[in-house]
Specification:
By secondary structure, the protein is an all-alpha fold. 69% of the residues lie in helices and 0% in strands.
Amino acid sequence: MDYGHLIEEKIKKSMERGDFDNLPGKGKPLPKDEFAHLPPDLRNSYRILKNANMLPEEMILKKRIVELEELLAGIKDPELSADFKKELSEKKIRYDVMMEKRKGSQSGAYRQYQRKIDRRFGF
């Protein structure tokens, strides 16, 4: 069943009543989508997993690695950047070890499509 027309009708009635007039953030740009790097068909799935605190550890690590690389690009202080470089190095090693372990336990079908999956996720 398609409930789209019912939903549209309820939204229109709410707009007429002014239910959306005083919402927080009105007139401000939407926040950046943290899953913009993912293909559109996977974004909502990862959002649901994140909201349920179910993101895979490798995704959390990969996200932190990207954050650290962006942070390091803007730091001029060598002492401060040394701490972040150390953390970045540790995260990369942990990520590599995790992915290496996973390779050994993967099915043949997964290994066959590994390159396609990596490209799809932008790795």
